[in-house]
Amino acid sequence: MSDPRGFLNVRARHEVADRPVAERIHDWNDVHAEEGLQPWTQEQAARCMDCGTPFCMTGCPLGNLIPEFNDLVRQGKWEEAYHRLSRTNNFPEVTGLICPAPCEQACVLGIHQPPTMIKADEQTIIDQAYKLGYVQPMPPQRLTDMTVAIVGSGPAGLACAQQLTRAGHTVVVYEKDEKIGGLMRYGIPSFKLDKGLIDRRLAQMVAEGTVFRTGVEIGKDISWDDLRSRYDALVVAIGSTVPRDVKVPGRDLNGIHFAMDYLPDANRRLEGGTLHHGIDAKDKRVVIIGGGDTGSDCLGTAIRQGARSVTVLQINPKEPDVRPENEPWPTYARLYQPTTSMQEGGVYCYNTDTVEFEGSQVTDRTSVTLDDSGLVAGFTADDTGHVTGVEVVDVHRGIGGAREHVPGSERTIEADLVLVSTGFHHPDTTTMLDQLPVELDRRGNLARNADFKTSQDGVFVCGDAGRGQSLVVWAIAEGRSCAAAVDRTLSAGGSTELPAPIDSTQRPMSLRSL
């Protein structure tokens, strides 16, 4: 590093500026201020230390060479910074916006000062690269005679597709929805991830030779075994889509929906697409069950749709402001970091669960134990069978850490719309197991070996379909590594030049792994 004292000269961390709340809640545009990051990013990049061991890189499954591109940013060498970053990350425009940045929590500077701005640097690099014309198609110099089908166009599937296309294989990506992008397009609100960023990347991929087929549901329009027979290799990247439900009396009332039925329709409405459920929060009292990122996305979406009120129920306590002892540096600590949606309104109820139910269609009024989602909710109904309320009770940790209800804390939260945002179990393999019987692991994910191979010859799996629900940065890393495994299998010599940042068994760094 050319400025090893930069972190001493610039001690303050400059956070990304957001647009005023009063302005941004009335549109679906990017929540960040239009001034961009570039005016102060170079100064912030100088805070990156000349670390003997840059632990930030251990926090990133992509293996981004963070100190290198930070120094290039500091010097304003945008083209070199772009080429350095794009060698390890296919979609920095995505990770620069929605990744929770485990790299920053592993930053050595973060032990005593606020960590280096790594996520913002990624975003600035790719913004500058597009602005200055550095992002160009990279078609292969020669084509192999091998063909690969990829089912699913989320971050894992697209990363795998781009890597294999650049290696010279003929790649076709199948997507059941109207447009390419998977979770990035339909699951993430536009105010967090502008869909134009996806479209400009897809234009590059098309120019490189990747073929996209939309509106094709494998297992229905084309059988899984037929698809496998058409190609030399098949990559399954269908994500983890079977939601964890809230299995309590009253769950079948009208007005209770999964978050991933609600958010995709909100995105389709903005793009003029076909609505699947027609859910709208306008003038409704909304209760969101689950306080993670998806719950936060539901909050921001409901506010923009004109919800009368929004309440978020979270069974866990509020996260601490400082790193707890059981999550030491450089592991990823669950700290309280209010999202932009949380800043916009709504009420968060922590340590909250539900035990009793009433309503004209609800006859079981017994107490209910927690299901595997870690959250249970009960509902009240009107005479038409529409939800009118969620009955809740406070919880605390008792002896042995088990959750216990707090007597006398029972109450009802009025609701016209309830959104269940409690995570996902595993991929939807309903048609696959009949048509292409692959083995599943104990969690219901597609079982694979260290090289991403399933029990079926020539069939690979990457992303949440094999790993379970995870972060976008892990999905990209899985796609890149799976591409290397596919390329190695298809090549005559059994070798590949494609990078493989992880194997299928690798997990985020934790106290147990240190």
From TrEMBL:
It is an enzyme of class 1 (oxidoreductase). One of its GO terms (biological process) is glutamate biosynthetic process. Residues 503-514 have a biased composition (Polar residues). GO terms for molecular function: glutamate synthase (NADPH) activity; iron-sulfur cluster binding; metal ion binding; oxidoreductase activity, acting on the CH-NH2 group of donors, NAD or NADP as acceptor. Residues 147-479 form the FAD/NAD(P)-binding domain. Residues 493-514 are annotated as: Disordered. Keywords: Amino-acid biosynthesis, Glutamate biosynthesis, Iron, Iron-sulfur, Metal-binding, Oxidoreductase. Pathway: Amino-acid biosynthesis. Its EC number is 1.4.1.13. The keyword Coiled coil does not apply. Residues 40-131 form the Dihydroprymidine dehydrogenase domain. SUPFAM superfamilies: alpha-helical ferredoxin, FAD/NAD(P)-binding domain, Nucleotide-binding domain. InterPro entries: DPD_II, FAD/NAD-bd_sf, FAD/NAD-binding_dom, Glut_synth_ssu1, Glutamate_Synthase, Helical_ferredxn. Signal peptide: none annotated. It comes from the Bacteria. This is Glutamate synthase subunit beta.
